[in-house]
Design goal:
With 116 residues, the protein is mainly α. The protein contains 5 helices and 2 strands, in the order αααββαα. It has one domain. The protein is globular.
Length: 116
C-alpha cells in the first residue's frame, strides 16, 4: 500500500512558504495525529526551515519567532507534531537562539508536570 507520508520533497524539490503554512494549519487541527504524520511534519518542516530558508543551517530570531507564532496556542504547542517539529529544528540547526531553546524547555517542563 502506498504511504503518502513517504512522498517528502527531495533534494531538488522544496516546499514553498505557502506549503509550510498550509501544513502547519492542517496540523493545528489534528489533536491525535498518527505517528506517520508526526514524523512527516517534524522531518519535512524542520528540513525546510533549517536547510532551505536563509540563513541555511541555522535558526535566527526571525525563524524562531515565525515557528513559535505558528505552533503556539496560549503558551503551549498546539499538537504533538508541533512539539516534534520544535525538537527536530533545535537538533538540526547549528545555531538556535535562546528564545527557541527557552520555549522548547518550557514545553517539555509543562508536559512532564502534566504527566506527573
Amino acid at each position: 500500500m502506498h504511504n503518502p507520508f513517504n512522498a517528502r520533497p527531495g533534494p531538488t524539490q522544496t516546499l514553498s512558504h505557502d506549503d509550510a503554512e498550509a501544513l502547519l494549519a492542517i496540523n493545528a487541527h489534528l489533536r491525535k495525529p498518527s505517528p506517520e504524520w508526526v514524523d512527516f511534519i517534524g522531518e519535512t518542516l524542520s528540513t525546510w526551515l533549517v536547510e532551505h530558508r536563509a540563513p541555511q543551517g541555522e535558526v535566527d530570531d526571525g525563524k524562531a519567532r515565525w515557528l513559535i507564532d505558528r505552533i503556539d496556542e496560549g503558551g503551549q504547542v498546539n499538537s504533538p507534531a508541533a512539539l516534534a517539529l520544535l525538537r527536530r529544528v533545535c537538533v538540526k540547526a547549528r545555531g538556535v537562539p535562546a528564545l527557541l531553546l527557552h520555549y522548547l524547555r518550557a514545553q517539555e517542563t509543562r508536559l512532564r508536570l502534566a504527566s506527573a
